[in-house]
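Reply to dn_fold:

You asked what the input looked like. This is it:
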Amino acid sequence: MGSVTLAESAKLSQNELVAGVIENIITVNRMYEMLPFDGIEGNALAYDRENTLAPVATVGVGNTDGVIGAGATSGTNQTERQAAKDPATFTQVTSTLTTIMGDAEVNGLIQATRSNINNQTAVQIASKSKSAGRKFQDKLINGDGSNYNFTGLIALTPAGQTIDTGTDGAFLSFDIMDETMDSVVDKDGEVDYLAMHQRSIRTMNKLLRDLGGTSAMDAIKLPSGKEIPAYRGSPVFRNDYIPANVTKGASLLTSYLFAGTFDDGSRQHGIAGLTADQQSGIHVVDVGESETKDERIWRVKWYAGLALFSEKGIAMADGIKKPA
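and this is what came back:
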C-alpha cells in the first residue's frame, strides 16, 4: 500500500492563517497627512472674501479740486476722487458638510464561529472606515458639489488661478511648475504644497536628471518622519486621486498640477478639511440587531467637507500631457 497522499493528508490539517488583513487596495496620497481639519458648528461654514477694496485718492492741500466724492468735479484724478467715498464690497461663500456613511453587517453565526483568528466584525468595520477615508480623498480632488458631494480642488480653483497650457495641453516643465507656484500669493508667496499624479512626478524626476550634475530632488521630512521630494522649498505630494486620463483638445490622458496653501487656523488661507465640531472624524455606531435576519449592524459615518478660504491660496495647471 502506498503512502498517504497530499490530498488525503490535507483533510487532517489546516493551513496557518495570518492574523490581520494585508492591504491590497492602496492609493497613494501623502498630502492627506498634512491637510488641516476645522471643526464647525451646524452643517455649513460661511465666510466673506474681498470683492473690491474701499478706494482712496490723492488730494492737494487747500485746493477745492482736492475734495472727494460728488463734489470732485474737475482735475486729472476726478474719477478717482469721486470714488474715494465708495465702500468695500465682499462675496459671501458657504462650504457645507456632507455625510460619508456605510453599514457593516455581520451574520451572528459567522461572528460566533469564525472569529478565532480575525474578528469578523472588526475587519468589516475597519474596511468601511478605510472606504470612508478614501471617499473623502477622492472628493477632495474630484468632488463637483452635486449628489451630496462637497466641491473638490478641480472645481474650486477659479479661472483666474488656472494656468494656460494651450488648447491641447503641454508636457510638464519647470516653467509650468514655476508659474503655478507664482500664482499662489495668499501667504506672501509661500507655497505649502505641490500635488500631482505619480506619472507627473516621474516626468519631473526626468527633467532633473536631464539637467546633469544635480541631485534628484531636495527632500522635506513630514511629521510622521517620512521624507518626500521638494521643489523650491515646497513639498511635492504624490496624489493618485488626481485623474490622469482627462481629455483636453486633441490630447488624451492629461492630468493636473496643483499648488497652494493650507489654512493655519485663522480661516484666511488656502484649504482646510471640515468636520462636525461635536462629532469630528469617523464614528462607529452600533445600530443593533437586524429585524429581519440574524445580523448585527454597525454604522460607520463621517460628517465632512472642504473649504477654500482664499482663492489666491490655490492654483492649478490642467492639460499636463502624458509623455510619449
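The chain has a mean pLDDT of 88.
Hope that clears it up.
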